[in-house]
Amino acid sequence: MAFLEVKNIKKSFGKNTVLKNIGFSLEKGEVLAIIGSSGSGKTTLLRCVNFLETPEKGVIYVGGKLLFDADDPMIKRESEIRRNRLHFGMVFQQFNLFPQYTVFDNLVLAPKLLAKDQIRSRGSYRGVASFKQAQASIISEAEQLLEKVGLTEKRDSYPCDLSGGQQQRVAIARALALHPDILCFDEPTSALDPELTGEVLNVIKGLKSSDSTMIVVTHEIGFARAVADKIIFMDNGVIEEEGTPDEVIGNPKSQRTREFLARFNRFGD
Amino acid sequence: MEQFWNVTLQLLGGFMQNCELFGVTLLAALPLGLIVAFGSMSRFFPIKAVCRTLVWIIRGTPLLLQLFVVYYIPPMMTNGDFRFGDRMTAAIIAFIINYAAYFSEVYRGGIESIPKGQYEAGYVLGMKKRQIFFKVVFMQVIKRIIPPMSNEIITLVKDTSLARIILVEEILKFADDFRVQGLIWPVFYTGVFFLLFCGLLTLLFRFIEKKLDYYKV
Ligand SMILES: Nc1ncnc2c1ncn2[C@@H]1O[C@H](COP(=O)(O)OP(=O)(O)OP(=O)(O)O)[C@@H](O)[C@H]1O
Ligand SMILES: [Mg+2]
User: Fold this and answer.
1) Between helices A164-176 and A194-209, what is the axis angle to 10°?
2) Atom 8 of ligand 1, residue of closest alpha carbon
3) ipTM score here?
4) Are the beta carbons of A52 and B139 separated by less than 8 Å?
5) Number of neighbouring beta carbons within 10 Å of residue B46
6) Would you kindly state where each structural domain of chain B is located, as residue ranges?
7) pTM score, two decimals?
8) Which residue ranges form the domains of chain A, and what is each CATH number?
9) What class, spelled out in words, does domain B2-214 have in CATH?
10) Residues near ligand 2 ion, CB 5 Å cutoff
11) 10-residue stretch averages of pLDDT, chain B, 217 residues long
12) Distance between CA atoms of residues A230 and A34, nearest Å
């Protein structure tokens, strides 16, 4: 069994079936890129994986552990979902930073709350039993993360004073602060001016070299080809084609994939 | 001159009643309004229906009528066995209910204006619903509702004089007593009290808005 196993996911909104039996798997340290035309269900798939949507069918395993089973009501309880969610991190197209907190507080808010909860309920957070100690390591990790995304000097700024690219880098650091097993990105550069996409894509590339497992939904075909170990082309709620970047982008088998890529080549990417 | 001080003291005494009504209403209706707002947004239909209907009735009928109802109806229904303490108590109860309804709509507007993405960001960071509300959403709501809330609060200052309809001894009642004695100017003079009070509140709200200027929502 692969590190991440997503099987038979079906999700509808009303009569509109958006995901039709989707499944894929991913090994630890691998990067999966999901491409596909608008409305094909990429965002919905990512949201299902992060439990922001509840699929009608399907199962999700991480590291051999069953995190979601549409047929098991016990696993859909809020507390259970909240715990299982921590295996995943999510970076949104619109950043969704918390505007009233500084960059630094955006990073430490959730880890501190989590540390407090876990120390109370199970006696330790990431192997540390005292909240003071946990807090100290949360703070020093946040500082390291800011350095990693190149925003140390913006530590005390508010999100409204940052560029879109900087905000997205903060959002990435914020997601990393909780040590997710798998980090998901939903078109992380789509809301950015073209000249700002590079800085965000570079941060993601940097994460790949530090062995993070990632799922990236993107329209940046060149980027997908460069970082992904595996590419999925989605069309109309199904996986039309999957394989290595060289297979899917270099030598697509499906007619739909070829048409999709041809549109990109014509307009450049 | 002595007459001026006399009138001022009398009116000030009356205005204290307005201030009491204002203060108690505010202190009670601000939290109560938040609870009603949660009720109006509840996913449990009966609670939502009850809260929305109540808010509709309270906002759709005159405050004067509500004052009458609270003051006169309970003793009538119980043959005089039960009434809400004194007139002031009745006024306070009517005002709290009325303003809780108005405040709840301000809160609801503020809460519903927060983008879904803020909640989702909280969820994917493993936060609980309650933590998301209090640590993430609440301060953004506060910032958004300060302008509409200041409007309601300033209206409340002026509305306190309506308590006169059930003979609460508030400032306009004293002014009217002077008028009956043939002294007209105190009637206009009451305006000064309201103007000063509302002016102070306006300054206070502007100060709070400035204080929250460091972030944008
Ligand atoms: N909350 C929702 N309610 C109803 N329909 C929805 C909802 N979310 C998505 N859909 C529908 O599901 C389909 C897939 O949407 P989705 O956002 O997953 O596509 P996408 O591949 O991410 O597209 P894009 O590239 O434009 O982001 C669309 O037809 C959309 O209208
Ligand atoms: Mg999308």
Assistant:
1) 20
2) A44
3) 0.93
4) no
5) 8
6) 2-214
7) 0.89
8) 1-87+182-269 (3.40.50.300), 101-179 (no CATH)
9) mainly alpha
10) A 43
11) 88 94 97 96 96 97 94 83 82 96 97 96 95 95 95 96 90 92 92 96 95 89
12) 9
